[in-house]
Amino acid sequence: MLEVRNLTKRFGGLVALSDASLDVPEGAIVGLLGPNGAGKTTCFTIIAGFTKADTGSVRLNGQDITGLPPHRICALGMVRTFQIVQPFAGLTVEENIAVGAYLRHRDRREALAEARRIGKQLGMASLLDRPAAALTIAGRKRLEIGRALATGAKLLLLDEVMAGLIPTEVSEIVEIIRKIREDGHTFLMIEHVMQAVMSLAETAYVLNYGKMIAQGTPQQLVQDPAVIEAYLGHGAASRLQETGRA
Questions:
Q1: Contact between 204 and 192 (Cβ < 8 Å)
Q2: Which domain holds residue 233?
Q3: Which DSSP string corresponds to 1-63?
Q4: CATH for 155
Q5: How many domains does the chain have?
Q6: Cα(246)–Cα(237) distance, rounded to whole angstroms?
Q7: Is the pLDDT assigned to residue 143 strictly greater than 60?
Q8: pLDDT band at residue 85 under the 50/70/90 scheme
Q9: Which of 182, 195, 218, 229 is least surrounded by Cβ atoms within 10 Å, i.e. has the fewest?
Q10: What average pLDDT does range 7-28 have in this prediction?
Q11: Which long-range contacts (CB under 8 A, 24 or more apart) does 236-245 make?
């Protein structure tokens, strides 16, 4: 469904992304992992059309979308969420979700009806008439997913949707994502909450200093020496092995 090939992005002398490639099959949940500053968000912004790569290509359902603006990519079926959620504070939850629905439903009544349907799907039925500004962090995260869903996109790029949530809230979002996937959606997700990654992702990629250093199941990656060192520092893998033998 999504094919990313050899993306490279430089900001002056900083190479934020270097020859990075990944694949997201239709119906899958794929993780994009890595320590802070690894290049994950840069990769997302390029895929979703917010930043142009210096080299490389992005294909969605076989169509080359490299360099297209976000609104055109969204219309073709892919949309991203943002780590820092910024709802339209003066609007209700229902109206916020409807903002996404206007992409495919120009009639206000139809857009609001779609917003109500999605709000109920996300467990927000009792919150639809409340001001978005009054939502908790967990509520805002759900709202961000709701706005993305309302666009009608089938591939969702989730940027740390679990960040700032307590374990019970993480579990609730995990279940919501599973149900959305069952309805025919596909996910590529940046995530630091390993509970979520281990529960959801069939496969994941690991970025470090802009380069893809590993790919595999989450269970394989947590035992990969290169991944351990990316998160814990040089020599960490061998130290852990020695500790395990002791």
A1: no
A2: 2-245
A3: -EEEEEEEEEETTEEEEEEEEEEE-TT-EEEEE-STTSSHHHHHHHHTTSS--SEEEEEETTE
A4: 3.40.50.300
A5: 1
A6: 14
A7: yes
A8: confident
A9: 182
A10: 96
A11: none
